[in-house]
Amino acid sequence: MNDPRNGQRPSPTRPGGTPPVQNQNRPRFPGWILWVVLIGLALYNIYVFFWPHQGMQQLSIPYSAFVEQVQAGNVASATVEGQTVTGDFKQEMRLADDRLYGPGEPLPPEVEQNDVSAATGFRTTIPQDAQADVVALLEQNGVDPIHVSPQGDSILPTILLTVVPILLFIGLMVFLGRNMSRGQQNVLGFGRSRAKMYDAERPRVTFSDVAGEEEAKAELSEVVDFLRTPGKYHSLGARLPRGILLVGPPGTGKTLMAKAVAGEAGVPFFSVSGSEFVEMFVGVGASRVRDLFERAKAAAPSIIFVDELDAVGRQRFAGIGGGNDEREQTLNQLLVEMDGFETKDDVVVLAATNRPDVLDPALLRPGRFDRKVFVDLPDRKAREAILGTPLRGIPAAPEIDAAKIAQVTPGFAGADLANLVNEAALNAVARRASQVEPADIDAALDKIVLGNRRGTLISDAEKRLLAYHEAGHALVAAMTDGADPLRKISIVPRGQALGVTVQAPVEDRVTWTSRHLAGRLAILMGGRVAERLIFDDVSTGAQNDLKEATSLARRMVGLWGMSDDLGPYFIGLGEEHVFLGREITRAGGDVSDDLLQRAEASTQRLLTDAEATAAGILARERDALDRLAERLIAEETIDAADIAATIAGSTSDTPLPVAALSAI
Fold first, then answer.
1. How much is the pLDDT for 476?
2. Rounded distance, CA 214 to CA 207, Å?
3. CA–CA gap between residue 531 and residue 528 (Å, rounded)
4. Annotation marks residue 139 as catalytic
5. CA angle, corner 635, sides to 630 and 641, nearest 5?
6. Confidence class of residue 538 from pLDDT cuts 50, 70 and 90?
7. Cβ–Cβ under 8 Å, residues 656 and 650
8. Which of 81, 105, 360, 374 is the most buried (most CB within 10 A)?
9. Res 632: pLDDT
10. Rounded to the nearest 5°, which phi and psi values hold at 399?
11. Does residue 378 carry a pLDDT above 80?
């Protein structure tokens, strides 16, 4: 039952009603304190013995010279403490061969200038039990002020300067010996783990704070139950997987999901990034891994969360050349620690990565990270639920509909949606509005997807060429059955593009058919075909279109078996590789040169067929192409409704797909 006063849940209990031990770490004496004290004593010694006191140098003079200067009336003040007398002369004196010389008194010719010291302060040692006589001598000669300390030198400075440094040095040697015996070569704290510990008693994240990802929550609920009641599993000899790998694209909420597991279970949560294990010092990463697991075991039941696991868990000796020895040592220590778990060690290791393909196979074997939980991009319903959180944090207009925003943001992760709402709020602030309007959301979406508007100046001829190019893309998309609906056409330069044609899918897709992909190729070729049809020439503006179309065609042939010439055969053409070394060693090794040539020929045939399809559509719909281009020249940007109204005047007998022209 939730506590209405602070919104926290009571801590879970172990079997028998005993509350879990939150932290059993014994207090450690921090080694840096020894360094601070030792350095402080060294600075104190420098101050006492080498630093000039009272703003000037003191001359160490014999007792006889001191008596002569007192009788001559040249002593201005004096301090008598035991057998030491310090003070100031009335005028600067020079000391050479234990004799004092006044300002105008010439020095003997045999005295070199380097052997002469000059100062107004002095220091001398008087005979034992002569303090009273010295004070009387000073008073008789009018020295004022006179400070007298009847006690001799205190033993405290001697202790501070001799005994304490020796004791600290011995303690430091003992501390170093213990650390070296543990294999920790770094004594300044480099070997300590930098993991942040979140106490179970603090306000925490729960599954209710994570929108969507119901499948991942259901799978992780078993981990929560294990951490709440480990005795139930131990009684039957069951052991939950020690390592759980959260896999998903960036920004999908893997870290938030891990915190939610700890919040639901009510256990300490140790969070660390994989890159924090690797340092320039050899052995530091392995030492930090050991320290992290020791802390987690002492606070069991607990959770260790390693973010960006691929930073330390990348495959050893992958590709050509050697690897990072420090990183590999850290990875080896991580493997050893996960193997060293005992049944009673109620510690679960969660890790997150968006590159599971680069992880070392030893990490993924049973007993380590043997369970994968996929935290994928949210679907439309999940995006709508996620948008509820950032929209509640801004003054949003009633017209803003989270469902409509979710519909036009396929492929957006949770972080992308939060950024979208924030950009919309920034737009509202820029125009000094009191609330965020739908136009702000639309402008923010264009900025994120298309980039910032640029002030590039183009001539009328280039503007006309660009308008026909984008109109060609849009018209082929409108006339292709099953193509994604058009959302916007613009010839306003944004980001790296001079113009854009934006399509928004009606629903999220996981798989694509060969017919849909062939239509996508025709749409990509539409701009180049329109240029050739109208101007009987082509421009460099189709570079990105050709690049994307070629990549798609290669994947259709080499990965998905969509070539009539090759049939259902996997070649790997178009597959991306993480390591350059693998690409070099693989090239030509798995398939024959003849098969590669046939695959390239099939790729080229797909592209030429797509170009022919686009040319047929645009030749048949020439009037609609001219209307779209002229309207783009006049307005520069037209939305879905205007696109539908412009194309609707076509005289073609082929009916336009209604779904492709509907406004989003």
1. 95
2. 9
3. 5
4. no
5. 90
6. very high
7. yes
8. 360
9. 92
10. -75, -15
11. yes
pLDDT of res. 518: 93
Query: Rounded to an integer, what distance in angstroms lies between the CA atom of residue 448 and that of residue 426?
Result: 13
From the list 213, 264, 276, 470, the catalytic residue is 470
Give me the amino acid identity at 428: A
Omega prior to 301 cis, within 30 of 0: yes
Taking the CB of residue 557, how many other CB atoms lie within 10 A of it?
Answer: 26
Round to whole Å and give the CA distance between 287 and 270: 16
DSSP string spanning 16-30? TSPPPPS--PPP---
Q: What is the DSSP string of 37-77?
A: HHHHHHHHHHHHHTSPGGGS-EEE--HHHHHHHHHTT-EEE
Cα 299–chain centre separation:
27
Q: In this structure, are residues 402 and 387 in contact, taking their beta carbons and an 8 Å threshold? A: yes
pLDDT of residue 658: 34
8 A C-beta contact, residue 387 and residue 405: yes
Instruction: Supply the DSSP symbol for 80.
Output: E
Question: pLDDT for 110-146, tens place per residue?
Answer: 777 777 788 888 888 888 778 888 888 888 888 888 8
pLDDT band at 523 (very low <50, low <70, confident <90, very high): very high
In this prediction, residue 15 carries a pLDDT of 38
pLDDT of residue 277: 66
Give residue 26's pLDDT: 45
Cα four-point dihedral sign 624, 626, 627, 628: positive
Asked whether the beta carbons of 201 and 23 are under 8 A apart, the reply is no
Tokens of 137: 């001598």
Q: Are 135 and 146 in contact (CB under 8 A)?
A: yes
297 close to 345: Cβ distance less than 8 angstroms? yes
Closest alpha carbon to 647 in 656, 638, 659: 656
Q: How far apart are the first and last CA of the chain?
A: 44
Per-residue pLDDT, 372: 86
- Share the mean pLDDT of the chain: 77
The phi, psi pair for 101, rounded to 5°, reads -130, 135
Residue 323 has pLDDT above 60, yes or no: no
Which tokens sit at 517?
A: 């992909």
**441 with 424: CB under 8 angstroms?**
yes
The letter for the amino acid at 262 is A
Query: Residue 18 — pLDDT band, cuts 50, 70, 90?
Result: very low
Residue (of 640, 642, 565, 652) closest to 616 by Cα position: 652
DSSP 207: G
d(CA 549, CA 604): 10
